C-alpha cells in the first residue's frame, strides 16, 4: 500500500528526471568558447537575435489582433454560422505551420494555381516576386494564420464567462461598442491575451520547419547547422543556452505584462454575456470577416492538399505510408500516456502533501514547454551520451559491442517528448484535480481506504474528462512535432511529420500532401473531441 512518503518519493524522482537534462544546457554557458562560437558571435549571432525578435513581435501582434477580434465576435454577438465557427476557428491548430508554409508556397509560386490561372485564363503575366512568401513577412503570415487559435481559444473562454453586468453598466454610462471593446474588454482580458500570445511566441521560437523551408536564419536553424553541418555540439549547446536566456527574458516580460491587476466579481450573481443578435450589413460583415480568416487558415490549405493528394495517389507505397502512421501513433500515444501517468502522480502529490516546496517543485516540470525543441534535443542528447558512457562497462559485460545503446534508441526520443510536452498534460490534470477538490478523497480516507485505493476508486473515475483532454492535447502536439524528431529519431525511423517535411524540402510538395492530410485529419478529430469535452464537461 502506498503512503504519503511513497507518493513524495515517486513525484520527486519524476520531477528531477524531467529537469535534469536542462542542467546540461546551463553547464554549456561556462564551457570554453571555440572558433566556431567566436565566428558566430562576431558575424551572425546578432542577425539570429534580430530575426527572432521580428518574427516574435509581429506574429504576436497580428495573432492578438485576429484572435481577440474573433473571440469578441463569438462571445458577444449572434450571427449566421456562429455556432459552427465557435469551434471551427480552432481547427487551424490542426495544421502544423511548416505544412501551411509549403502549401501556401505551392499555391502562390510560378506553377501554382494563382499564377497559372492568371496566365492561362486571363492572359496576365505578373512578376513572380510579387507572390514570393519565402521571406520574413511570409513567415509572419504563416505563423499568424496557424497560431492565432491560441489567443482566440483562451480569450473566448475568458470572455464568455464574464459577467454581463460589466457590459450593461458601460452601456448605461453611454459607452458605444468600440469604447466598450477598447476600454473594458481589452483591460479585463489582459491576462488571457498575454497567456495566449505567450504560447504563440514560444511556438514561433520552437519552430524549425517554416524557417528552414523559407531559408530564414534563426536560433533553431543555427543549432541544426552547427550540430549537423559543423559537427560541433559544444557550439550548439552555447546557442541553445543563448536561446534559453532569450526565452527566460520573454517569460519575465510576460510576467510584467500580466502585472498585479486582477479583475474579480464583487457579487456571486454572475451572469455570462448575453448574445447580441446582428442583422443586415452588420451580420454580413461579421460572417464575412470570420469566414475570410477561416478560409485562409484552414479551408484553402486543406483544399490544396486534397487536390495534390488526388494527383499523387498511389505514388507512395501503401506499406511505407502505413509504417509512418504506425510510427507516429506509437510515439505520440506512448509519450502521451507516460506524460498523463506522471502528471497524475505529481498532481496528486501536490494535493495530499503540504509544504512550501510542494507548490514550487511541480512548476519546475512545466518549464520544458517554454524551452524550444532544438534546445531540449541538445540537452537530451548530451545527457544520454553521458549516461551511455557511464553504463559502458555494463554493456561490455552483457556482450554489447556498441557504446551508444540508449543514445541510438527510441527511448531518447520519447524522453524528449515527455520533457517538452509535460506541461500540457500536467496543466490539464491539475485543472481536473482543482475541479474535483479533496472532499471525496477525505471521505474515502475516513471510511478506511488507503491512498492508493482512494486514488484508483475515487479520484481516477472523476478525473476521466481531464485525463482524456490532457492525452488528446499532448497527442496532437507530438503528432505535429518536427525539431525534436529530426534530431533524436533512431536511424530509418520516420513519422508523418518528418516525412512530410522531407518531401517538401526535396521539392516533392505534392507527395507531402498524403502525410500532411493524415496529420490534419487526426488532429482535427482530436480537437473536435477536446472542444466537445470542454463544452459538455463539468463546469
Characterize the structure shown.
The chain is an all-alpha fold. The protein is 76% helix and 1% strand. It has 24 helices and 2 strands. The protein has helices at residues 4-28, 35-43, 45-76, 82-88, 97-108, 113-122, 136-160, 164-172, 177-188, 190-206, 209-214, 219-229, 233-258, 280-312, 318-352, 356-365, 373-397, 410-436, 439-446, 451-462, 464-480, 483-488, 496-505, 509-536, and strands at residues 77-78, 276-277. Strands 1-2 form a two-stranded parallel ribbon. The chain is globular. Mean pLDDT is 79; it is low at 263-269.
Summary keywords:
539 residues; mainly alpha; two-stranded parallel sheet; 24 helices; 1% strand
Short structural summary:
It is built from 24 helices and two strands. It is an all-alpha fold and 539 residues long.
Nearest-angstrom radius of gyration?
A: 25 Å
Uncertain segments of ≥5 residues (pLDDT<50)? Answer: 263-269
Helix-strand topology string:
HHHEHHHHHHHHHHEHHHHHHHHHHH
Mean pLDDT: 79
Query: How would you sum up the global shape?
Result: globular
What can be said about the biggest beta sheet?
2 strands, parallel
Q: How is the largest sheet built, in terms of strand order?
A: 1-2
Strand content: under 5%
Helix content: over 70%
Distance between the termini: 33 Å
Would you tell me the structural class of the helices and strands? mainly alpha
Total helix count?
A: 24
The total count of strands amounts to: 2
Topology:
Layout: H1 4-28, H2 35-43, H3 45-76, E1 77-78, H4 82-88, H5 97-108, H6 113-122, H7 136-160, H8 164-172, H9 177-188, H10 190-206, H11 209-214, H12 219-229, H13 233-258, E2 276-277, H14 280-312, H15 318-352, H16 356-365, H17 373-397, H18 410-436, H19 439-446, H20 451-462, H21 464-480, H22 483-488, H23 496-505, H24 509-536
Parallel strand pairs: 1-2
Amino acid at each position: 500500500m502506498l503512503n504519503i512518503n511513497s507518493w513524495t518519493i515517486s513525484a520527486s524522482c519524476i520531477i528531477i528526471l524531467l529537469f535534469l537534462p536542462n542542467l546540461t544546457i546551463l553547464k554549456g554557458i561556462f564551457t570554453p568558447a571555440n572558433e566556431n562560437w567566436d565566428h558566430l558571435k562576431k558575424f551572425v549571432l546578432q542577425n539570429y537575435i534580430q530575426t527572432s525578435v521580428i518574427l516574435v513581435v509581429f506574429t504576436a501582434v497580428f495573432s492578438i489582433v485576429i484572435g481577440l477580434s474573433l473571440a469578441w465576435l463569438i462571445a458577444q454577438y449572434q450571427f449566421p454560422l456562429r455556432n459552427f465557427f465557435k469551434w471551427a476557428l480552432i481547427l487551424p491548430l490542426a495544421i502544423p505551420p511548416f505544412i501551411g508554409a509549403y502549401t501556401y508556397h505551392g499555391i502562390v509560386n510560378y506553377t501554382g494555381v494563382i499564377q497559372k490561372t492568371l496566365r492561362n485564363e486571363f492572359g496576365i503575366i505578373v512578376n513572380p516576386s510579387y507572390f514570393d512568401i519565402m521571406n520574413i513577412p511570409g513567415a509572419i503570415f504563416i505563423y499568424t494564420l496557424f497560431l492565432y487559435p491560441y489567443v482566440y481559444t483562451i480569450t473566448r473562454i475568458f470572455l464568455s464567462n464574464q459577467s454581463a453586468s460589466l457590459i450593461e453598466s458601460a452601456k448605461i454610462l453611454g459607452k458605444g461598442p468600440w469604447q466598450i471593446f477598447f476600454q473594458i474588454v481589452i483591460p479585463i482580458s489582459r491576462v488571457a491575451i498575454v497567456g495566449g500570445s505567450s504560447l504563440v511566441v514560444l511556438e514561433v521560437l520552437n519552430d524549425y520547419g517554416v524557417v528552414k523551408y523559407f531559408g530564414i536564419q534563426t536560433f533553431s536553424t543555427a543549432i541544426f547547422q552547427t550540430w549537423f553541418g559543423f559537427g560541433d555540439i559544444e557550439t550548439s549547446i552555447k546557442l541553445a543556452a543563448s536561446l534559453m536566456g532569450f526565452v527566460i527574458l520573454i517569460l519575465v516580460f510576460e510576467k510584467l505584462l500580466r502585472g498585479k491587476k486582477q479583475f474579480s466579481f464583487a457579487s456571486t450573481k454572475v451572469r455570462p454575456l448575453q448574445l447580441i443578435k446582428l442583422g443586415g450589413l452588420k451580420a454580413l460583415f461579421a460572417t464575412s470577416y470570420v469566414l475570410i480568416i477561416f478560409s485562409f487558415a484552414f479551408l484553402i490549405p486543406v483544399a490544396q492538399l486534397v487536390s495534390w493528394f488526388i494527383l499523387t495517389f498511389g505514388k507512395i507505397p501503401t506499406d511505407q505510408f502505413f509504417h509512418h502512421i504506425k510510427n507516429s501513433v506509437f510515439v505520440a500515444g506512448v509519450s502521451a500516456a507516460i506524460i498523463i501517468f506522471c502528471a497524475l502522480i505529481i498532481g496528486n502529490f501536490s494535493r495530499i502533501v503540504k509544504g512550501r516546496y510542494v507548490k514550487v517543485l511541480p512548476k519546475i516540470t512545466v518549464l520544458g514547454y517554454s524551452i524550444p525543441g532544438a534546445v531540449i534535443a541538445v540537452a537530451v542528447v548530451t545527457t544520454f551520451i553521458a549516461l551511455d558512457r557511464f553504463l559502458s562497462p555494463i554493456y561490455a559485460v552483457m556482450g554489447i559491442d556498441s557504446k551508444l545503446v540508449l543514445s541510438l534508441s527510441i527511448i531518447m526520443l520519447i524522453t524528449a517528448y515527455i520533457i517538452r510536452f509535460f506541461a500540457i498534460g500536467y496543466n490539464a490534470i491539475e485543472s481536473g484535480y482543482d475541479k474535483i477538490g479533496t472532499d471525496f478523497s477525505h471521505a474515502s480516507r475516513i471510511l478506511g481506504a488507503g491512498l492508493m485505493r482512494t486514488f484508483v476508486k475515487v479520484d481516477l473515475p472523476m478525473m476521466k474528462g481531464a485525463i482524456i483532454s490532457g492525452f488528446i492535447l499532448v497527442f496532437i502536439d507530438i503528432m505535429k512535432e518536427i525539431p525534436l524528431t529530426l534530431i533524436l529519431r533512431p536511424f530509418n525511423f520516420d513519422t508523418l511529420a518528418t516525412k512530410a517535411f522531407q518531401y517538401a524540402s526535396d521539392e516533392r510538395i505534392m507527395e507531402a500532401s498524403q502525410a500532411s492530410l493524415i496529420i490534419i485529419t487526426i488532429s482535427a478529430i482530436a480537437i473536435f473531441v477536446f472542444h466537445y469535452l470542454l463544452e459538455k464537461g463539468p463546469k
